[in-house]
Amino acid sequence: MPPLWLPLLLSAVPLFEGRYAIPLAILWGLPAPLAYLLCTCVNLAVIPAVLLGMGTVVPPLRRRWRWVETLFRLMTRRRLRRRHFAALFTFVALPLPGTGAYTGTALAFLLGMRDGRTVATLALGVITANALTALTAGGLSWLL
């Protein structure tokens, strides 16, 4: 059995996240609930880290290049409605490659969604996607 830190490390890698870390952890012999819990905790830690990182990287880019400022204004011009949060949840909750915490958080930042509701929406999406992945991988592992 590989070390316990390997699934944790893999669930922090962009585009890999819990969608692949959980099945690999189960394949390596970790019980499905433990694999889900560990990978989800690491995946949830990504959300504030990406929001803070983008908060420090994007403003200098907006000041330096006019096209970044124009793009940012176009994306944040519309008022947010409840359906934006539902769409963000659905985007993150689908356990498909490229629809995880990193991409969802970056999308939310670019759309100007930076309040507590956004973090809660992203967290619920990550929890749902990882639960679907763990249930699927855990259910398939005992069949093999």
Structural notes for this entry:
With 144 residues, the chain is mainly alpha-helical. The protein has one domain (5-141). The protein has helices spanning 5-11, 17-27, 32-64, 66-76, 82-93, 101-110, 116-141. Helix 1 runs antiparallel to helix 2 and helix 3 (32-64) runs parallel beside helix 6. The protein is elongated and about 50 Å long. The mean pLDDT is 83.
Radius of gyration: 17 Å
**How many structurally independent domains?**
1
- The first-to-last residue Cα distance is 18 Å
Structural class: mainly alpha
Poorly predicted ranges: none
Concise structural overview:
With 144 residues, the chain is an all-alpha fold. Helix content is 76%, strand content 0%.
Show the helix and strand layout.
Elements: H1 5-11, H2 17-27, H3 32-64, H4 66-76, H5 82-93, H6 101-110, H7 116-141
Helix pairs in contact: 1-2, 1-3, 2-3, 2-7, 3-4, 3-6, 3-7, 5-7, 6-7
Task: Fill in the keyword field for this structure.
mainly alpha; 144 residues
